[in-house]
Amino acid sequence: MLRDGFHKSFTELFSLMEQWDKLREAAQARSLFWLQRPLEDQPDKLDNFYHYLTKAEAAERKGYYEEVYNNLYALACYFDNSEDKWVRNHFYERCFKIAQLIKVDGGKKEAEAEAHMGLLYEEEGELLKAAEHYEAFHELTQGRLWKDATGQFLNLIACESLVRTYRLLSDRMLQNRDYKQAIKILIKASEIAREAKER
């Protein structure tokens, strides 16, 4: 990477390798059995890092932010498994930042990035942050006929994600005996569900 002039890609990969090692050490310190081999012993993963990070860096140099996003998103998808979720989340966050720079698609990549960040926070149990991102996702897809790779309308996905998160939030509020807030959230969920049904 360095020989080919991709200093930014090398720095990012090196940082991820350090983080990988810290996670391994933390697991060993807690007497947990860490099944994953060191990153440097996994050439398939290193090859994917090299391929997509260098393509993203080359595109960024030219200002082709949509191509940067696509390459970072490809890495997020590649690492979308239980062992590597933290790597996936790293690239979701990178995609989110890059999506803010893409102006040629009417906000579609930004909407997708909001959805990914919502999922990231939902999985971490940070439901208020998840709801914020899903609300932005919903707002960006209003009146748009955008579809995902499987042919589903993004607005419908936004509605489903919001309803799910609002229900989880209301359950948490009910456990804390915050009945007024739970009712408000459930009303919002009902309105979003009705909107999704009308589509």
Automatic annotation (TrEMBL):
- Which keywords has UniProt assigned to this entry? Cytoplasm, Repeat, TPR repeat
Whether Cytoplasm counts among this entry's keywords is yes
Q: Which InterPro entries match?
A: Bac_ResReg_Asp_Phosphatase (IPR051476), TPR-like_helical_dom_sf (IPR011990)
Cell location = Cytoplasm
Q: Which domain of life is it from?
A: Eukaryota
One GO CC term of this entry?
cytoplasm
State the protein's purpose: Axonemal protein which is implicated in axonemal and/or peri-axonemal structure assembly and regulates flagellum assembly and beating and therefore sperm motility.
Q: What is this protein called?
A: Tetratricopeptide repeat protein 29
